[in-house]
Design a protein that fits this description.
This is NADPH:quinone reductase. It contains ten helices and 15 strands. By secondary structure, it is an alpha/beta fold.
Amino acid sequence: MRAITYTQPGGTDVLQLVDRPTPEPGPGEVRVRLAFSGVNPTDWKSRSGTQPGPDGQVPDQDGAGTVEAVGQGVDPVLVGERVWVWEAAWQRPHGTAAEHTVVPVRQTVLLGPDASFELGAALGIPFLTAHRCLTVAESLPDRLSPGSLNGRTVLVQGGAGAVGNAAIQLARWADATVIATVSSPHKAQLAAAAGASHVIDYKRQDVVAEVRKLSSHGVDAIVEVAPAANAAIDAQVIAPHGAVAMYANDGGDEVTVPIRSQMGPNARWQFVLVYTEPTRAKDVAVEDVNAAVLDGAVRVGEDAGLPLHVFPLAETAAAHQAVQDGVTGKVLVDVTR
């Protein structure tokens, strides 16, 4: 099979297109013939700083395709099913930048007949991260479904990013009021297309003042991409028993929180890394995200606020570079090309 691999950490130049034996699924595993691979920031960060195993590493965590074979203990009825895949490369050698991957069966989710493979490959890391960010506050339910966030207000800092887009779509599916911040008129259009109820351009508007106009009691959840830059804002708009969920470190590696002002509302400042979140939280996130997909509530593409940038497998290095450079939208690798 054709696969992208690297045998040492480094820049995009370490990624090589090679021919490798098609992997066989072991007990409890399935082999998926992939259609698309999704590229996330953690993919290039892992490639840059993590030593791969002696046989090399196939990068990328997310993907979508068709179950082709099953290992011992897995129901063969799954063969031929369309699925999306999450965390394929987490502590495993077979990521999704290849024609085939092998993963534990629990890391494949039935995609249904209507959702595209492009959508499936865009789900994993961004949507599971967004789900965690939307459910860590003590005042909010730990499951998402239609109506579960009715009467609640969510602030998505960076509403045009992949996780921001996912948070907007999931929160709106759950009937929350969603306020998104962006840095340009074009990104404002993307956040609105994703479903944001209100959009604030933080380069031209006072975020605290605008949020207070929209929600006098504050916001119940903050999905935060840049905590070092936004901590002072977040501290002023968090509602009683709300949570600031920090899933990235855009704009700085250290965050300063005003202690006294956060004690009054019993605010929670929560760090989020999807790979190491509690098992139950991951399991229910997978279930809830897939329920939203089956409801038709999750979309990709320009009209969903998430432009797609698709590269052939041989240009996976360019796909990684695009994510590293901060391209707006979702980067996918078409592994069939």
